[in-house]
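Action item from last week, closing it out:
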Amino acid sequence: MLKPIDYGTDPAELLNSANRQLYKPVTIDWSRPRKLEKSGKIVFEEEFTEPGYLYALVRNHGRSNWRDVIQYIGITNNLDSRFSNHPKVDEIRAIRGNVALSIGKIDFGTYRTAIGSGNRRAIEELEHILIWTLWEDLWNDKKQSTLPGMGKHPGRAWDITNEGYKFSGRMPRRILYPWIAVEPRRNRTVKRKP
């Protein structure tokens, strides 16, 4: 059985060589899911007009044993038109049950290089980490065969806090990436008394 490594302190206190936080803190505030109509058209509040969001498609089926099954994690710069022509979303909407959309509003805090129009790479990293974390029920095809941050551009260390909607407990409260886990051996360091 794998056991997570104890860093000896909270990861927020780990510093890199430039005396900055090693793990970049980021908060994702998930909205309450709203039904995704067959047309894909959704009217969003003004707060969602800025580019750069994560989203989760949630499916609820009356006969299912589980609630709030997260079926798809994605990113978009245009929430207004994203779901009108999306083959995977259309496939999910075609099966029985209600499909709803939750929007993840990202707060990068003081991480300045991820704020603004150049944040696409940072948002893609977060999406990739969520896909790997929630893989069990996801319909995502891409980003399943590569570890997050192992592509052309190296990834960063993230300390992700998920707030807002909890998806019936399916969305982890906190994700630390990268993390280290080991399979320990039997500890034989205790000396026997003669």
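Closing note: The first strand starts at residue 3 and ends at 4.
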